């Protein structure tokens, strides 16, 4: 070993021995005070001030950006310094005392470069006849990962090499023989493989004509998510071996944004995903069929019904509708057929002309498929309600309310859900006239109709109570004795509400006809 190499090795050993240790010097044991205040102070500023307090010239490199809050009063400098290096730097810093009272504080790898690096270990002595392989230096760019950790890993895997990180670069400098360099290159090719890039991403907008953009976006997102989860590929092994089926998730995530103002979908994804979304939109964005529902609410007295001899539950001859899905109301029959040589619609109109029945409501509404139409015949009252320490008047709709929800089946029939409600004031407060008791009847029926079929729903009873008082004027108002001079008559009249419904699937001709009637 030459004298120059021996001298460098001695300097290195001496420098490393001094790293991380303060020598026995009285000035390092003097008490110092460091008070940062509530706002704290950067670690770099604290190290600089502490070093200068004992006449050291600090050189600070790559100090972590940490804020300290200290209240260090009259305690030894040595203890403070060691705590700052060991505790607050999280083990990322070390220090070495150099000539002329210069102290270097930096990460360990920086200190190692300043103090000096050992020469690579000489290769083992060649056997007889073998040539000595020269040491060469090569640079390797690191595409991914931590270069410092990769350098440490390489020196463990390939014995005899020296790997260092080029300052400020994602590059490793490796010294070793050609055989060692080939092994390093092979390892780096495996652990720093380039990240595979996915397919190119595109963006398209789809203007919807019939479907709502917000609802369509949810449906498309769920459909694409399900497809991505179930995307599969079959991988065939060698001849005679069993096939293996594996789930391969798509690397690109699709984005679907709905613009409700313009009813437009903004879709971002691969070309394949955009093509699939376009096909789904063609199947979703089409005109929704409509159903024209004619609703007639007729009020007749039960006395009249009994006098006419109309017993709905005994009607025969095919007038009873047999395809009732969910029976909530009674008296359901096909009113388009004759009933005892009479048509029910014509019968009700004749009775109304004679003053024996009354049309409560006769409406014609067109409803989208699977949507709900609403018909109300009545009025709104305000009922007092106590909320906390306040009394509020809450609006309440009373009268006859009918809701219809049609669903067109694949075979052209109509499944009609009918919700009906009859409510009225039953009692009022005699003092202030506020409503105390409300009567309410509710029913829900689901039935299947042919296109254009008419049905009648009955069973809702509306009770009318009349109270009249007759007597001798003046005398009838005398307390206690007044009852001897008056007569009170209470008349309760029960009226039955018949709901006549006709449902028609709307086409262009039907829509035009319905529009002309309006």
Topology of this structure?
Blueprint: H1 3-18, E1 31-35, E2 41-42, H2 43-53, E3 57-60, E4 67-68, E5 71-76, H3 77-88, E6 94-98, E7 102-106, H4 108-115, E8 136-141, H5 147-157, E9 162-165, E10 171-176, H6 178-191, E11 202-207, H7 213-230, E12 232-235, E13 244-247, E14 255-259, E15 264-269, H8 271-284, E16 290-301, H9 302-308, E17 324-326, E18 330-334, H10 344-353, E19 357-368, E20 373-387, E21 390-408, E22 414-428, E23 435-449, E24 454-471, E25 486-506, H11 508-517
Parallel strand pairs: 3-7
Antiparallel strand pairs: 1-5, 2-4, 6-7, 8-10, 9-10, 11-15, 12-13, 14-15, 16-19, 16-25, 17-23, 18-24, 20-21, 21-22, 22-23, 24-25
Helix pairs in contact: 2-3
Describe the structure.
With 518 residues, the chain is of the alpha+beta class. The protein has four domains: 26-115, Phage tail protein beta-alpha-beta fold (3-Layer(bab) Sandwich); 136-192, Ribosomal Protein S8, Chain: A, domain 1; 201-229 and 253-284, Ribosomal Protein S8, Chain: A, domain 1, CATH 3.30.1370; 292-313 and 342-513, no CATH class. The chain contains eleven helices and 25 strands. It has helices spanning 3-18, 43-53, 77-88, 108-115, 147-157, 178-191, 213-230, 271-284, 302-308, 344-353, 508-517, and strands at residues 31-35, 41-42, 57-60, 67-68, 71-76, 94-98, 102-106, 136-141, 162-165, 171-176, 202-207, 232-235, 244-247, 255-259, 264-269, 290-301, 324-326, 330-334, 357-368, 373-387, 390-408, 414-428, 435-449, 454-471, 486-506. It has a five-stranded antiparallel beta sheet. β12 and β13 form a beta hairpin. α2 runs antiparallel to α3 (77-88). The radius of gyration is 47 Å and the shape is elongated. Residues 6-19, 232-251, 311-342 and 510-518 have low confidence and may be disordered. Keywords: Membrane, Signal, Transport. Its main location: membrane.
